[in-house]
Amino acid sequence: MKRYDRQEKFHAFGNTTQKKLQNLCALIIGVGALGSGIAEQLVRSGIGKLIIVDRDIVTLSNLHRQSGYLEVDANEMKPKVFALKERLQAMNSEVKIEAMNMEVLPQNILSILETHQPDVVLDGLDRFETRYLVNEATNKMRIPYIYSAVLGSQVSVFPIDSNGPCLQCIMPEPPETMESCALHGVLPPAVHIASSFAVAEVFNYLMTGMFSYDMKWIDIYKGEMKSTHIVNLKEEDCPVCRQHHYQRLKQSTIEGEYYCGNVIQVRYAPEDFDKLLSPNVNVIKQNQFVKLLEYRHYKMTFFQDGRLLIYGSENKNDALEVAQLIFVTT
Ligand SMILES: [Zn+2]
User: Fold this and answer.
1) Which ranges carry the THIF-type NAD/FAD binding fold domain (predicted)?
2) Distance in Å, CA 172 to ligand 1 centroid
3) pLDDT block averages, 10 residues each, the chain of length 330
4) Alpha carbon of 208 to those of 13, 202, 205: distances in Å?
5) Distance 165 CA to ligand 1 centre (A)
């Protein structure tokens, strides 16, 4: 029996859609729970090429919902994209998979899209600022973008292309209750629903030649679901999809430091990753990609791209002060 027999047997899918899928190149930005779920379905279904981009390493707190990862990945502090590529390739060796261990920023997003020319971009993100950036970049490059988000028990997924509204039309401001972080938690079933809806949009597009232009919204805790047709929500004066003013693409960087629960991020230069650390800093664990550090009661994660995450601080200034003290002063 042929590998993809069961999906080809579905009347609207058939061998024709299978061939289209095998010629498709998708880019997934962010491979946490959502992104790794999307990646698994696309790879098992036999997509032609998949590019995965993410800046994080696997941690134990990811494992309850992020189906792409195992305990061994967390213990080895593996970058998510490398752990996921290995797993995906073991699921389907026919798919071309490219792993990019990097942060998506205003300075690099256009070159990522230009280099890889994906047919579709899928959202596995947990930060709205980056979603708005992806919205601008995909609009500029005229690449379809499937938005998906999960918070707590709530899921929302909708497709964006130049015929319909963009993210800016639908949500001019990041919804207050939807801003990322560890604050609201995530229920695993909600994530799996979201990744399935996102993949279903891709399949629908391949089967029918067009997106649904429906926003799917589900709350698995309340047991509520609705589907809203969004094609008429394109704003007359949208700065992004009507006026093509790409504010976020022009920013030099998204932010210097931010709060996420009690986590603060500080950016150093990538070469600072190899700088000599102060003897007062305890290196708990390290590999070529990341160092887990401890200084007084602060725990820190230092990434090879220069990002330093400081945990356990109630006070931003204290954390910033600690960030200044981790290196040997010359
Ligand atoms: Zn718009």
Assistant:
1) 4-240
2) 9
3) 92 96 98 96 98 95 91 96 98 98 94 98 91 97 96 93 95 70 79 96 96 95 96 95 96 62 84 93 95 92 93 80 85
4) 9, 10, 5
5) 5
| Tokens 């941690």 -> residue | 59
Ligand 1 centroid – CA 51 distance (Å): 26
Closest CA to 77 of 90, 50, 59, 101: 59
- Token digits of residue 151: 């918070």
Range of the domain at 26: 5-250
Q: Is 329 domain-assigned?
A: no
Neighbours of ion ligand 1 (CB under 5 A): 166, 168-169, 238, 240-241
Q: Which runs of E-coded beta strand occur in 188-297?
A: 214-219, 224-229, 259-260, 263-267, 282-286, 290-295
Q: What is the pTM of this model?
A: 0.93
Instruction: Indicate the pairing of strand 298-303 with strand 259-260.
Output: unpaired
Looking at the fold, whether 206 and 72 belong to one and the same domain comes out as yes
Q: From ligand 1's centre to the CA of 158, what distance in Å?
A: 13
**Domain match, 122 and 68 both:** yes
> How close is the Cα of 154 to the center of ligand 1, in Å?
23
The Å distance, Cα 289 to ligand 1 centre, comes to 38
Residue owning tokens 């600072």: 272
Mark whether 31 and 114 lie in a shared domain: yes
